[in-house]
Amino acid sequence: MLLSLGALDEVLRICGFASNFFADILLKDPEDEFFQQSLQMNLNNIFTVGYFYQNAGRFPQAKNAYETGLGISLKLLQSSPQDEFLQNYTGTMLNNLGNLLSDMGRIEDAKNRYEKALEIYTEPMQYLTIGRKAESIIRLIELNTEQAEKETNPYNQMKCLREAFQICKEQQEFFIKYERKHERKLVTEAGLSAYIDFLMKNVRLENNSEKRAKEYEKALQAIEKLKEMEEDETILKLCSSTACYLRGRKLVNEALASRQPELELLRQAVEQFQNAKETYEKANVCFCVYIGLLKILEDVNELEEVNVPKLKELVKKVLETLPEDVNPSIRVSFENIPQIFEEKDKLTRKELLKKLDERVSAIEYKALENFFGHIHEKIKDYFEEPFSLNLIYENWKLEVIFDDPEKVKGKLTIKTVNRILFNRALSKEEIEKHLLEIDYLKIGYFPKGEDEITFTTPGQKKPVLRPIDYFESVGRDNKTRIFQCDCCNGVCVDRDLKLAAVQLKYNAYGENSVVKLTTDDAYRQKVMTILDAVKDEADIVVFPEFSIPFEYLEEIQKFADENEVIVVAGSHYVTEGKLGEYGKIFSREFEEEDLRKNISPVVIPSSKIVHNEKLLGAREEREIYFKEGMKAGKINHIFKLRDDLRVGLMICYEYLNADLRNHLIPACDVIVVPQTNPSPKRFYETAKNDINNPPCSGNRAYIMANGIFTLEKNEETLGGSTGIVSTLDKSTYGQQNEGIIEPVDEVMEQFILLASISKDFNPAKDTQVGQIPIKTKLIHIFEKNEIFSCSEDKGKQFIQLLETIAECKDRNELSNCHKIN
């Protein structure tokens, strides 16, 4: 009542008295729930009074209110240091006091309150206190950087910036532990911003370009160390961009250290700024400045013969390319360059060079002085958010964790750019748990690598925005992105999926830390003949791991386009010699970081080739066998053939990793596993276990496409046992092993296993009779050199027999043929 009437002084007096009374009782009996609730109500009223005073600009009264509530909570916190309400309330009061004192211009007192807030939180922390601590850290960093801007003494500026960067380093573990990715990114950006600004001010005190270059080298080493400790992909990009920027600055100063600016070093600097710009758009300023400066310096390289009107025109063009928000002094420095050469008759060559160096140095100082200038706006937006939340994505589920879900008023709408993920009020249970879970598979949403997710409620002025990177963690050290590739326009699949698994013979060997394949014209012809044989029999053809070299892919793409068949083209290692050719036929360019990845190309009709990257190498692919070992991949695709039919792909040893397998199984109906595997038995045991003890509902089929292969010069043939394991019912369960084509008397053959997998099959007991879950047949592969290996006459007889069998029209003719032969 008094609050609604605006009687704030009276409310403060009454609530202060009541809170002290309740506090004294709770010090003697801290478990009394009635007095706990009464105290919390009165303390919250004191907070509200302070908040009203602060908004009204009555700062002394607001300070008195906050300190009244703070004194009471601190007294109780001494006897109950683990109490979540008291920790949260005390942290909130200290943060608000810090904000208030900052607004009053009492910067050191404000910093003291934020620092004191960091001391009160104890482990284990709860959602509310995690949020309060994150706020204290960000406020403290922001206050130091703002203070640095206001200071005029460069040494005082550097002191504030050093404090900001130091806080960032000290608190990284907190953000990692509680998975506060958004706040951690803000803090890291703010810390790096402070570090770069510190560096720029330190460098400015140094007039010698050579010494400045050395300072940049020190900073570069520090950033590289930070990268080594980092795992988060977004922050790694930020560090990489900063490293490129610092490398560029170092090269600029090395160029300026020579008697006349060295253009080659400047060109190298421009390349570094270009790399920084590609990763981090704010580096665009530096790129534009130095590409412009390079053009001018190239033009004035011969100082005695400078065409001043032409130079003015060039400067004008350079100024047009600069971003609108570029520092005005940079524009002035560019505009002043032609003036130097208008006065050249009055100056000696040495003086001319000195003046040019001064202009270039002015640009060097200012080009990107505040590398992360936008971060202050981002932090401001963060503190203006109506509610605070954190996102965790794992195994197709998005967890939204609210610091204080009571602040989410009414219907909550959560959406990406083109998809609504959630559109209702939070339930009572979700509010109590501070947690909302969105199952992407249930709503049929397959993310495309990264999203910016918006959260809005009715009447909300600005949406809460959170970027998210959909990396899936696999085990402790590996991460992968799982994408969906829509193949519906490339193939038309009937109710039954027709699949061909090829068991092929080949020789593999190791060279320069990669696995390679022995090939010739006969091998290429064999591959293309196999494809021709199944073009009317299969929707998807799967070749074994390592069995298809890069050179065959264009021809296979032509086959896929003409016959509307998807081809899983085994796998191969990415090597330097072919690096520049991938962009012509693949959906993405490949770079040096992709070298030594084992990739499985998936050739889709009327589309560029997409690929999966092997995440987990077999023992033979690791550093114990090779000098460097296979490089872990980060891309996995699921292939959508119909709305109700998706196919996953795992490369050999990956299939044995339960973590990765459990990411894919819920999203896929069929998983194909191309492999070069000497011991396939373990793979089938894993597949049968997943069928008999399914991790999720629905029918599944696992197809193993293994080679029969020799390694290096060893003539022993390994592999075999290509086959399929699928969901069966009670009547067909005993046939589970019939889909596995094992060697007979240790003899391994080349063949194509054709499988037609029914999507309508129902494994429930006592339902339809006579269901057929899967139909299979074999096409044997014979090579001429094998046929004629005994004698030419027997070889001809065998070929004639094959022709006779092919002419048989029914089972009786085939039976008679068998008796005769």
Automatic annotation (TrEMBL):
Positions in coiled-coil regions: 206-233
Matches recorded under SUPFAM superfamilies: Carbon-nitrogen hydrolase, TPR-like
SMART domains: TPR
Coiled coil listed as a keyword: yes
Superkingdom of source: Archaea
InterPro entries: C-N_Hydrolase_sf, TPR-like_helical_dom_sf, TPR_rpt
Keyword vocabulary terms for this entry: Coiled coil, TPR repeat
TPR repeat intervals: 91-124
PROSITE patterns xrefs: TPR
Annotated protein name in UniProt: Uncharacterized protein
The species this protein was found in: Methanosarcina siciliae C2J
